[in-house]
Amino acid sequence: MGGSRRPSTGIPGPLTRVCVDGQRTFRVGSRASPLSVVQTEEVLSLLRPPHPGARFEVVPITTEGDRKKAASISSLGRGAFVREIERALLDGMIDLAVHSAKDLTVRLPDGLTARAAGRRRDPRDVLIDRWGLPLEELPAGARLGTGSPRRTASIKAVRRDLTVVPIRGNVGTRLEKAKGGDYDGVVLAAAGVLRLNREREIDEYLPPELFVPEVGQGTLAVEARRDDETVLDMLEHVMDQSTSAALRAERSFLAEMGGGCTVPVAAYARADDAYVTISSMAALPDGSRFFRALVTAPANDPEDAGRRAARALLDSGAKEIVSR
After folding, report:
1. What is 19-118+219-239's CATH number, 1.10.10.10, 3.40.50.300, 3.40.190.10, 1.20.1420.30?
2. pLDDT digits over 217-264, tens only?
3. Which has the least CB within 10 A, 2, 33, 112, 133?
4. Quick check: is 307 catalytic?
5. CATH level 2 (architecture), domain 125-206
6. Are the C-beta atoms of 101 and 228 separated by less than 8 Å?
7. Which residue among the candidates 91, 122, 261, 308 is catalytic per the annotation?
8. Burial of 318: CB neighbours in 10 Å, binned 0-12, 13-18, 19+
9. Catalytic residue among 121, 124, 156, 174
10. pTM of the predicted model, to two decimals?
Protein backbone atom coordinates (compact mmCIF):
# COMPACT_ATOMS: atom_id res chain seq x y z
CA MET A 1 0.00 0.00 0.00
CA GLY A 2 2.97 2.34 -0.39
CA GLY A 3 1.30 3.56 -3.55
CA SER A 4 3.04 5.75 -6.08
CA ARG A 5 -0.25 6.45 -7.89
CA ARG A 6 -2.07 9.45 -6.47
CA PRO A 7 -5.85 9.43 -6.26
CA SER A 8 -7.56 11.70 -8.78
CA THR A 9 -9.35 13.72 -6.13
CA GLY A 10 -8.20 17.25 -6.81
CA ILE A 11 -5.68 17.24 -3.96
CA PRO A 12 -3.19 20.06 -4.57
CA GLY A 13 0.02 18.07 -5.00
CA PRO A 14 2.49 16.53 -2.53
CA LEU A 15 2.49 18.03 0.92
CA THR A 16 4.53 21.12 1.55
CA ARG A 17 5.09 22.03 5.19
CA VAL A 18 3.38 25.38 4.93
CA CYS A 19 3.86 27.98 7.62
CA VAL A 20 1.82 31.17 7.68
CA ASP A 21 2.61 33.77 10.33
CA GLY A 22 4.63 31.14 12.16
CA GLN A 23 1.77 28.63 12.14
CA ARG A 24 2.20 25.21 10.57
CA THR A 25 -0.65 24.02 8.35
CA PHE A 26 -1.71 20.37 8.62
CA ARG A 27 -3.73 18.85 5.80
CA VAL A 28 -6.56 16.64 7.05
CA GLY A 29 -8.01 14.04 4.69
CA SER A 30 -11.72 13.34 4.89
CA ARG A 31 -14.57 12.04 2.79
CA ALA A 32 -16.89 14.80 1.61
CA SER A 33 -20.22 13.40 2.87
CA PRO A 34 -22.14 15.58 5.36
CA LEU A 35 -21.48 13.12 8.18
CA SER A 36 -17.76 12.92 7.36
CA VAL A 37 -17.52 16.72 7.43
CA VAL A 38 -19.18 16.78 10.87
CA GLN A 39 -16.92 14.02 12.15
CA THR A 40 -13.78 15.77 10.93
CA GLU A 41 -14.85 19.01 12.58
CA GLU A 42 -15.50 17.08 15.80
CA VAL A 43 -11.90 15.88 15.81
CA LEU A 44 -10.54 19.30 14.88
CA SER A 45 -12.48 20.86 17.75
CA LEU A 46 -10.41 18.61 20.02
CA LEU A 47 -7.09 19.30 18.29
CA ARG A 48 -7.27 23.08 18.05
CA PRO A 49 -7.35 24.16 21.75
CA PRO A 50 -4.13 22.40 22.82
CA HIS A 51 -2.36 23.42 19.58
CA PRO A 52 -3.08 27.13 18.98
CA GLY A 53 0.04 27.37 16.80
CA ALA A 54 -1.37 24.98 14.20
CA ARG A 55 -3.74 25.47 11.29
CA PHE A 56 -5.82 22.65 9.84
CA GLU A 57 -6.86 22.49 6.19
CA VAL A 58 -9.53 19.90 5.38
CA VAL A 59 -8.91 18.06 2.08
CA PRO A 60 -12.02 16.25 0.75
CA ILE A 61 -11.22 12.94 -0.97
CA THR A 62 -13.56 10.75 -3.00
CA THR A 63 -13.24 7.04 -2.18
CA GLU A 64 -14.20 3.88 -4.03
CA GLY A 65 -17.21 3.50 -1.77
CA ASP A 66 -18.36 7.00 -2.67
CA ARG A 67 -18.00 6.39 -6.41
CA LYS A 68 -19.67 2.97 -6.54
CA LYS A 69 -23.01 4.04 -5.17
CA ALA A 70 -24.90 1.10 -6.67
CA ALA A 71 -22.60 -1.60 -5.25
CA SER A 72 -23.53 -3.37 -2.03
CA ILE A 73 -21.41 -2.74 1.05
CA SER A 74 -20.58 -6.44 1.32
CA SER A 75 -19.31 -6.55 -2.29
CA LEU A 76 -17.08 -3.52 -1.70
CA GLY A 77 -15.49 -5.02 1.40
CA ARG A 78 -13.64 -3.30 4.23
CA GLY A 79 -11.45 -0.44 3.13
CA ALA A 80 -13.70 0.89 0.35
CA PHE A 81 -14.16 4.17 2.22
CA VAL A 82 -10.54 4.65 3.29
CA ARG A 83 -8.15 3.31 0.63
CA GLU A 84 -7.77 6.50 -1.42
CA ILE A 85 -7.38 8.54 1.75
CA GLU A 86 -4.68 6.18 3.04
CA ARG A 87 -2.87 6.40 -0.29
CA ALA A 88 -2.87 10.19 -0.06
CA LEU A 89 -1.46 9.90 3.45
CA LEU A 90 1.31 7.56 2.35
CA ASP A 91 2.11 9.80 -0.63
CA GLY A 92 2.55 12.79 1.69
CA MET A 93 -0.40 14.68 0.25
CA ILE A 94 -2.13 14.91 3.63
CA ASP A 95 -0.82 14.78 7.20
CA LEU A 96 -3.64 12.94 8.92
CA ALA A 97 -7.06 11.51 8.12
CA VAL A 98 -10.33 11.22 10.01
CA HIS A 99 -12.42 8.07 9.58
CA SER A 100 -15.33 6.26 11.11
CA ALA A 101 -13.37 3.57 12.94
CA LYS A 102 -15.65 0.84 11.56
CA ASP A 103 -14.43 1.65 8.03
CA LEU A 104 -10.79 0.79 8.78
CA THR A 105 -9.34 -2.46 7.48
CA VAL A 106 -8.28 -5.02 10.06
CA ARG A 107 -4.62 -4.51 9.21
CA LEU A 108 -3.57 -1.01 8.27
CA PRO A 109 -1.16 -0.41 5.37
CA ASP A 110 2.51 -0.54 6.27
CA GLY A 111 3.68 2.81 7.55
CA LEU A 112 0.32 3.92 8.96
CA THR A 113 -1.20 3.85 12.42
CA ALA A 114 -4.57 4.91 13.84
CA ARG A 115 -5.77 6.38 17.14
CA ALA A 116 -9.24 6.68 18.61
CA ALA A 117 -10.19 10.35 18.90
CA GLY A 118 -12.49 11.66 21.60
CA ARG A 119 -15.23 9.72 23.37
CA ARG A 120 -17.28 7.14 21.58
CA ARG A 121 -20.81 8.21 20.67
CA ASP A 122 -23.76 5.87 21.15
CA PRO A 123 -22.65 2.59 19.47
CA ARG A 124 -26.14 1.12 19.10
CA ASP A 125 -28.19 0.59 15.96
CA VAL A 126 -31.46 2.46 15.65
CA LEU A 127 -34.76 1.91 13.85
CA ILE A 128 -36.59 4.67 11.99
CA ASP A 129 -39.88 3.69 10.36
CA ARG A 130 -43.03 5.17 8.87
CA TRP A 131 -45.24 4.12 11.79
CA GLY A 132 -43.03 5.26 14.66
CA LEU A 133 -43.14 1.71 16.07
CA PRO A 134 -40.51 -0.44 17.79
CA LEU A 135 -39.17 -3.45 15.90
CA GLU A 136 -41.33 -6.00 17.69
CA GLU A 137 -44.52 -4.13 16.73
CA LEU A 138 -43.84 -3.64 13.02
CA PRO A 139 -46.43 -5.29 10.78
CA ALA A 140 -45.44 -8.58 9.12
CA GLY A 141 -43.78 -8.00 5.76
CA ALA A 142 -42.58 -4.49 6.63
CA ARG A 143 -39.63 -3.53 4.40
CA LEU A 144 -36.55 -2.43 6.30
CA GLY A 145 -33.56 -0.99 4.47
CA THR A 146 -29.97 -1.80 5.41
CA GLY A 147 -26.77 -2.45 3.50
CA SER A 148 -25.21 -4.32 6.41
CA PRO A 149 -25.12 -8.15 6.45
CA ARG A 150 -24.76 -7.95 10.24
CA ARG A 151 -27.94 -5.90 10.60
CA THR A 152 -29.74 -8.15 8.11
CA ALA A 153 -28.87 -11.25 10.14
CA SER A 154 -29.85 -9.52 13.39
CA ILE A 155 -33.23 -8.38 12.03
CA LYS A 156 -33.99 -11.84 10.67
CA ALA A 157 -32.97 -13.50 13.94
CA VAL A 158 -35.55 -11.40 15.80
CA ARG A 159 -38.28 -11.00 13.13
CA ARG A 160 -38.14 -13.56 10.32
CA ASP A 161 -41.41 -12.17 8.98
CA LEU A 162 -39.87 -8.83 8.01
CA THR A 163 -38.43 -8.09 4.57
CA VAL A 164 -34.90 -6.69 4.43
CA VAL A 165 -34.18 -4.52 1.38
CA PRO A 166 -30.67 -3.36 0.36
CA ILE A 167 -30.08 0.38 0.70
CA ARG A 168 -27.13 2.67 -0.02
CA GLY A 169 -26.43 6.35 0.42
CA ASN A 170 -25.25 8.69 3.14
CA VAL A 171 -27.18 8.97 6.39
CA GLY A 172 -29.36 11.81 5.18
CA THR A 173 -30.30 9.93 2.01
CA ARG A 174 -31.23 6.80 3.94
CA LEU A 175 -33.30 8.80 6.41
CA GLU A 176 -35.25 10.32 3.52
CA LYS A 177 -35.79 6.87 2.01
CA ALA A 178 -36.99 5.47 5.35
CA LYS A 179 -40.58 6.46 4.76
CA GLY A 180 -40.67 6.53 0.98
CA GLY A 181 -42.26 4.21 -1.53
CA ASP A 182 -39.60 1.48 -1.47
CA TYR A 183 -39.03 1.24 2.27
CA ASP A 184 -41.08 1.20 5.46
CA GLY A 185 -38.05 1.96 7.59
CA VAL A 186 -34.28 1.75 7.95
CA VAL A 187 -31.82 0.42 10.51
CA LEU A 188 -28.58 2.37 10.83
CA ALA A 189 -26.00 3.53 13.38
CA ALA A 190 -27.22 5.81 16.14
CA ALA A 191 -23.95 7.75 16.14
CA GLY A 192 -24.41 9.09 12.61
CA VAL A 193 -27.98 10.18 13.30
CA LEU A 194 -26.93 11.87 16.54
CA ARG A 195 -23.94 13.63 14.97
CA LEU A 196 -26.28 15.09 12.34
CA ASN A 197 -28.68 16.26 15.09
CA ARG A 198 -31.55 14.14 13.75
CA GLU A 199 -32.18 12.11 16.91
CA ARG A 200 -35.85 13.15 16.98
CA GLU A 201 -36.42 10.85 14.02
CA ILE A 202 -35.30 7.75 15.94
CA ASP A 203 -38.15 5.38 16.83
CA GLU A 204 -36.14 2.76 18.74
CA TYR A 205 -32.61 2.23 20.00
CA LEU A 206 -31.98 -1.45 19.35
CA PRO A 207 -30.46 -3.31 22.32
CA PRO A 208 -26.80 -4.27 21.80
CA GLU A 209 -27.58 -7.66 23.36
CA LEU A 210 -29.59 -8.48 20.21
CA PHE A 211 -27.94 -6.13 17.70
CA VAL A 212 -24.25 -6.35 18.57
CA PRO A 213 -22.67 -3.16 17.15
CA GLU A 214 -20.09 -3.26 14.39
CA VAL A 215 -16.44 -3.12 15.43
CA GLY A 216 -15.62 0.56 15.99
CA GLN A 217 -19.19 1.79 15.53
CA GLY A 218 -19.63 5.26 17.03
CA THR A 219 -15.86 5.79 17.36
CA LEU A 220 -13.79 8.23 15.31
CA ALA A 221 -10.28 7.23 14.31
CA VAL A 222 -7.43 9.45 13.15
CA GLU A 223 -4.85 7.83 10.90
CA ALA A 224 -1.31 9.13 10.49
CA ARG A 225 2.11 8.04 9.31
CA ARG A 226 4.04 6.04 11.86
CA ASP A 227 7.12 8.22 11.43
CA ASP A 228 5.32 11.55 11.90
CA GLU A 229 6.12 12.14 15.56
CA THR A 230 4.62 15.63 15.53
CA VAL A 231 1.16 14.42 14.48
CA LEU A 232 1.29 11.37 16.73
CA ASP A 233 2.11 13.58 19.69
CA MET A 234 -0.84 15.81 18.83
CA LEU A 235 -3.15 12.80 18.77
CA GLU A 236 -2.14 11.80 22.29
CA HIS A 237 -3.99 14.90 23.52
CA VAL A 238 -7.34 13.83 22.01
CA MET A 239 -7.47 10.18 23.03
CA ASP A 240 -10.06 8.96 25.53
CA GLN A 241 -8.58 5.99 27.36
CA SER A 242 -11.73 3.88 27.68
CA THR A 243 -12.69 4.49 24.04
CA SER A 244 -9.17 3.66 22.91
CA ALA A 245 -9.08 0.44 24.93
CA ALA A 246 -12.46 -0.64 23.60
CA LEU A 247 -11.41 -0.03 19.99
CA ARG A 248 -8.15 -1.91 20.45
CA ALA A 249 -10.05 -4.87 21.91
CA GLU A 250 -12.62 -4.90 19.11
CA ARG A 251 -10.04 -4.68 16.34
CA SER A 252 -8.00 -7.43 17.97
CA PHE A 253 -11.15 -9.59 18.02
CA LEU A 254 -11.66 -9.00 14.31
CA ALA A 255 -8.04 -9.82 13.50
CA GLU A 256 -8.27 -13.07 15.48
CA MET A 257 -11.46 -14.00 13.62
CA GLY A 258 -9.54 -13.67 10.38
CA GLY A 259 -10.64 -10.20 9.29
CA GLY A 260 -12.06 -11.44 5.99
CA CYS A 261 -15.00 -13.41 7.31
CA THR A 262 -17.69 -14.03 4.73
CA VAL A 263 -20.36 -14.28 7.44
CA PRO A 264 -21.40 -11.39 9.69
CA VAL A 265 -19.25 -11.07 12.81
CA ALA A 266 -19.13 -8.20 15.30
CA ALA A 267 -17.88 -7.26 18.74
CA TYR A 268 -18.74 -4.49 21.15
CA ALA A 269 -16.34 -3.71 24.02
CA ARG A 270 -16.87 -1.60 27.13
CA ALA A 271 -13.77 -0.70 29.10
CA ASP A 272 -13.09 0.77 32.52
CA ASP A 273 -9.96 1.01 34.63
CA ALA A 274 -10.08 -2.66 35.63
CA TYR A 275 -11.86 -4.70 32.98
CA VAL A 276 -12.89 -4.94 29.35
CA THR A 277 -16.23 -6.63 28.69
CA ILE A 278 -16.81 -7.79 25.11
CA SER A 279 -20.06 -8.95 23.55
CA SER A 280 -19.62 -10.71 20.22
CA MET A 281 -21.69 -12.40 17.53
CA ALA A 282 -21.46 -14.45 14.36
CA ALA A 283 -24.37 -15.49 12.20
CA LEU A 284 -25.44 -16.81 8.85
CA PRO A 285 -26.59 -13.92 6.63
CA ASP A 286 -30.23 -15.02 6.84
CA GLY A 287 -30.13 -15.14 10.64
CA SER A 288 -31.03 -18.83 10.74
CA ARG A 289 -27.98 -19.61 12.86
CA PHE A 290 -26.75 -17.13 15.42
CA PHE A 291 -23.94 -17.42 17.96
CA ARG A 292 -23.07 -15.05 20.81
CA ALA A 293 -20.39 -14.87 23.48
CA LEU A 294 -19.62 -12.58 26.41
CA VAL A 295 -16.10 -12.23 27.83
CA THR A 296 -14.67 -10.10 30.63
CA ALA A 297 -10.88 -9.73 30.80
CA PRO A 298 -8.31 -7.46 32.50
CA ALA A 299 -8.15 -3.98 30.97
CA ASN A 300 -4.36 -3.82 30.99
CA ASP A 301 -4.19 -5.81 27.71
CA PRO A 302 -7.12 -4.93 25.43
CA GLU A 303 -5.65 -6.88 22.51
CA ASP A 304 -5.55 -10.05 24.57
CA ALA A 305 -9.14 -9.43 25.67
CA GLY A 306 -10.14 -9.22 22.01
CA ARG A 307 -8.41 -12.48 21.20
CA ARG A 308 -10.14 -14.18 24.13
CA ALA A 309 -13.49 -12.90 22.89
CA ALA A 310 -12.85 -14.34 19.42
CA ARG A 311 -11.86 -17.73 20.81
CA ALA A 312 -14.93 -17.80 23.07
CA LEU A 313 -17.19 -17.04 20.11
CA LEU A 314 -15.59 -19.73 17.97
CA ASP A 315 -15.88 -22.23 20.83
CA SER A 316 -19.60 -21.41 21.16
CA GLY A 317 -20.18 -23.10 17.80
CA ALA A 318 -19.47 -20.18 15.49
CA LYS A 319 -16.36 -21.90 14.13
CA GLU A 320 -18.58 -24.08 11.94
CA ILE A 321 -20.10 -21.16 10.04
CA VAL A 322 -17.03 -18.89 10.07
CA SER A 323 -14.86 -21.56 8.43
CA ARG A 324 -17.28 -22.07 5.53
Report:
1. 3.40.190.10
2. 999 999 999 999 999 999 998 999 999 999 999 999 999 998 656 789
3. 2
4. no
5. 3-Layer(aba) Sandwich (3.40)
6. no
7. 261
8. buried
9. 174
10. 0.90
